[in-house]
Amino acid sequence: MAIDTVIFDIGNVLAGFDWAGFVRSFGFGPQVNERIARAVFQSEDWHQVDLGLKSDGELIDAFVANDPELEAEIREIFGRWQYSVTEYPFAEGWLRSLKDRGYRGYILSNYGRTMFNYARGHFRFLRHADGAVISYEINQIKPWPEIYRRLIEKYSIVPKNAVFLDDLPENLAGAREQGINTILVEDHDRAARELEELLGN
User: Are residues 70 and 97 both part of a single domain?
Assistant: First the structure.
């Protein structure tokens, strides 16, 4: 096995996504924060953000319907939603160094349209990727099999020669079902070491 392709998730791999901390930053208080979590991030509607089948207005309406008393708070959160994900300082250098060493680098991420439009203009690491498959663009999300297949087919990736880094075990399981090697990202330094070992360095 010779790895020639490295595939990255974005959230909590190349950029921090701490939705709970973001909600706390508004100062609504613990009880309201818990209700917002249930109405939005922990709701059955949350995956619709990444699927890309609904407009922002439809998404917000769905979340508000889960707790109508918090309509103002939910709308305020979504007014600043793009700032909930922040690029890690090491992200650009990580991808650039791999590219400089001859490896191909791709992005495979569950991401909503509005949020990714912001990321496209602000996250420096994206300029070093050879390509990307983003969930909202194809209306498929990890760990559904089709999203991995789209990436493999679009960029002619040989699964056994690729490794995927993600922070969620279920997403890695989906990649392994397609024959892709995986690394669980719980700590950047450890994940970087595991990657180097897999690359034979």
Answer: no
Question: pLDDT (tens digit, 9 = 90+) per residue, 179-197?
Answer: 999 999 999 999 999 999 9
- 71 and 91 co-located in one domain: no
Q: Are residues 124 and 69 located together in one domain of the fold?
A: no
- Same-domain check for residues 165 and 70: no
List the 104-109 sheet strands across, edge first: 131-134, 104-109, 5-8, 162-166, 181-184
**DSSP letters for 41-94:** ITSTTTHHHHHT-S-HHHHHHHHHHH-GGGHHHHHHHHHTGGGGEEE-TTHHHH
Q: What local confidence, expressed as pLDDT, does residue 1 receive?
A: 64
